Amino acid sequence: MTAAAVPQPGSLDDPWLDQLSKAIWSKPAFSMVPIDVAEVPRGHYSGPPLDEHGPRVVFFGIPSDYGTAFLLHLIEKRVNLVAAVCSTRWQRTHPKADLIARIAGYLGRPVEVTADANAAAFVRSLRAYAPDIVVMASFDQILTAQTLAVPTGGWLNVHPSLLPRHRGPEPIYWTIVNGDHEAGITVHQTVPRIDAGAIMAQRRIEVYDEDTAGTLTKRLVAQGLGALDETLARLGDGPADPVEPRLEQGSYEPPVRQTELDWDQPFERIERLVRAGDPDQPPFFTYRGQRRYVYAVRRVTPDAVNTEGLKRSYGTSLSNARMSLQRLSRGARPAAPLAWAGGPADEMLAVVRDAVVAVRWRPVGHTHAFRPLAGQQFP
Fold it and tell me: Which of 34, 112, 235, 290 has its CA at a distance of 20 to 30 angstroms from the CA of residue 3?
């Protein structure tokens, strides 16, 4: 099935912010790890002024495609953004200037930077902003009841799943791995228990057969912008009527660590792991003592190997491919990838439980996945 077009955001009426927004939304897939942006704006914010009288909003986030898109949307809607809060925890593996802080500073809004959002000193600072609402979109710290009690109108989290299904830090990964046919994004009240607060708004979309975590994230963010607008409008009209989730009917999945592929699995399972890991957490296999990170797999059938077109593409030496196919036809045990003579340098052949597959790999995966911090949570 061909993916539907993703709605594009509106104009922010400022050259630098519009350029940044365009750069993010022109990507075919969104990442949950921080954006590496080196450009510093040389001028001053020239767009329309933000609201100075509406509900006082503080934004919490890390500068991923996901988090940055929601911050830019709040600016486009001219909300009364009184401060932005950045985490330093992710900088252990990404020692770069924080784009969230840079955007807020460009707007002339205060920035708070914290490694522990539950520390007494930080809570005092947050309380000084007198926030009515906190909006959180991809933040890597778990918050206590004391911190969550600061905003008078509620603390909102934008979580990319159909809560209460896929509670936890990486719901999009598990949505694809589990073969869900439907995905969603939820704006919910934040409580001390992870992703367990009352639901304010929710959007549903179909999961396409070709979706990766990155393409699905982009489509979910596009839907989540409207869900956030709906929630802020409801809160602006007075007390909302959220829906309490039935947690016993949902699920919780833990953080994803680096995943080594087990070739003794069906092709469908391996293919889902690969799509779920693209782009942030690709699975790997070990070849000659080195890890190779997989970003695509496809079936190779006996008929395909014998076609003249494949011979022209991969050369005339197909002995390794034929050997693998013969082993599979004899009921051989699954085998790790081996070199495909005459094939691309980044492609190898593997025998899985029910197929021979061509495996495309890269020498490195995302560095964010190498050294996760204790208690680190995304999004």
Answer: 34
β pairing state of 80-87 and 111-114: parallel
Q: What is the pTM of this model?
A: 0.88
Pairwise CA distance, residues 34 & 11, whole Å: 23
Question: CB of 284 within 8 A of CB of 260?
Answer: yes
Same domain, 275 and 188: no
CATH at 351? 3.10.25
Structural domain count, the chain? 2
What separation in angstroms does the CA of 275 have from each of 116, 206, 226, 301? Answer: 33, 16, 26, 21
Question: Are 54 and 146 part of one and the same domain?
Answer: yes
Rounded Cα gap, residues 112 and 135, in angstroms: 14
Residues 239 and 281 in one domain: no
Tell me the two tokens of residue 190.
């934040």
Q: Is 256 inside any structural domain? A: no
pLDDT in tens, the chain (379 residues): 445 567 667 789 999 999 999 999 999 999 998 887 777 788 899 999 999 999 999 999 999 999 999 999 999 999 999 999 998 876 665 545 589 999 999 999 999 989 899 999 999 999 999 999 999 999 988 899 999 999 999 999 999 999 999 999 999 999 999 999 999 999 999 999 999 999 999 999 999 999 999 999 999 999 999 999 999 999 987 666 889 999 999 999 999 888 999 999 999 999 999 999 999 999 999 998 999 999 999 988 655 444 333 344 444 344 555 555 555 545 556 677 887 665 678 898 888 888 888 899 999 886 554 444 444 443 3
Three-state SS letters, 335-371: EEEEECCCCCCCEEEEECCCCEEEEEEECCCCHHHCC
The answer to whether the CB of 175 falls within 8 A of the CB of 216 is yes
Which phi and psi (to 5°) does residue 292 adopt? -125, 130
Q: Which domain holds residue 346?
A: 267-367
| Residue recorded with tokens 């009527």 | 241
